[in-house]
Amino acid sequence: MSALVGIEVIEHCWTSIEPYIDLISLISVSKSCNKLRQLVIDEVFGKIKASSLTVPSTLDQDCPYGPISEHGPRLLNLVHFPSLVKLDISFPLIPYSLRADGIGQVANENDFPLVLPHFVREVRNANNLEVFKISVNNLIVYDDGGEPQVAYNILKNNLIHKKKLRTLQITNSGGTAVAASRYSPSFLDAMVTVIHECNSCLENVYLFCGGAPSSSDHPEALQNFFEAVLSLPNLKQFNISTMVFREYAPFLNSFMGACQSIQNSQGVIPSNVLEAIGITVKACDYDQSEELHLQSVMHYFFSILSKIKSLVNVMLVLPLSCWNGYSISALSSCIERSSSSLKFVTLDFEGYKDGSGKQLLEFLLKIVNGKSDFASMFRGIGHLDEQDGSFQALRQFLEKKEANDETTWEFTYIPENWKKKKDAKASA
Prior knowledge:
Elements: H1 2-12, H2 14-17, H3 23-30, H4 34-40, E1 52-55, H5 68-76, E2 86-90, E3 96-98, E4 104-106, H6 115-122, E5 131-135, H7 147-159, E6 167-172, E7 182-183, H8 185-197, E8 204-209, E9 212-213, H9 221-230, E10 237-245, H10 249-265, E11 276-284, H11 294-305, E12 313-317, H12 325-337, E13 344-352, H13 359-369, E14 378-385, H14 389-405, E15 411-414, H15 416-427
Parallel strand pairs: 1-2, 2-5, 5-6, 6-8, 7-9, 8-10, 10-11, 11-12, 12-13, 13-14, 14-15
Antiparallel strand pairs: 3-4
Helix pairs in contact: 5-6, 6-7, 7-8, 8-9, 9-10, 10-11, 11-12, 13-14
């Protein structure tokens, strides 16, 4: 009786449960009993029907369906792709298993790429696809040999016909360490075409990207990608994130170049419904003296940002050398102009030391004093230089203000010993 009750509960809640079940679990459900089988199997084609599907990045050698290199195509062939509304797939590099001592070991390195061409062909049948999330992290190692490029072109040609596609999330960051973080320009180039062809329906784009290209192919792919996204007429959310080692200027220059192109050709981005934009650039062990020119191109971004009337959420996590008096003033003006719609602002200044004009101190005091309408928007302001005179004054001011009105402000400071280590790296 309890088993029957459990089945009835699953059946009743299936639409809520399905988005959280991966492919292997769906297969297990289809084999459990006839009642549950009817939930997941298409009667005409005899394949798994699901509006949401997550394909796991790895299958253990001990999985009952075997390693993904051997059974990946067969597993994907069980899926009724026309039923898919949301598809999330993360490609593994190679199958693995756990040894007796718990350490992962690889299987046959040459097996895996066979899954990719099978998958990109099947995507042509996903005509109801609205959300597409894909990670190509572990395919980047094959870029030099050109093996994935044919598959990327097939995927591109199949995706450009998806006129219901609203959300595109790309994880393109190969390498196990920051210093080895790379992105595939070939994959980005293919996605540029997809964005152009689906420009009337795409609303949300997220890019988690490596810090440097994996090859010299398509050198303009990153900037073209940014420009294509910013040109979307119905763009609602745009988030880019990267972790780079030493040289982050090329990545940011690509983004600023796209902003400059938009500024020169259109003046504003075409979307009047953009609600959220986030840029996170985490730099490790970089020489800031070589990157100061970034300050001179930041105004292209702020110029575009200040003209967006629909912004609700802004997040900027940028390296230290992106900030100076001009960019702080531009940021302040931009946020004030958008104050009627803005609800959330997150900023990170990476140990910025205020200039003689004290623009950042003035900006922050304006926030905490409530002289501007955006005083309550800020989720957090991170990594101010603890020893800077402006921020010592700000801290004293906040201590008095908190004692009087019991308001707690979330400002985080960079300790002096951390800053010394960072300065030593920059001068090494």
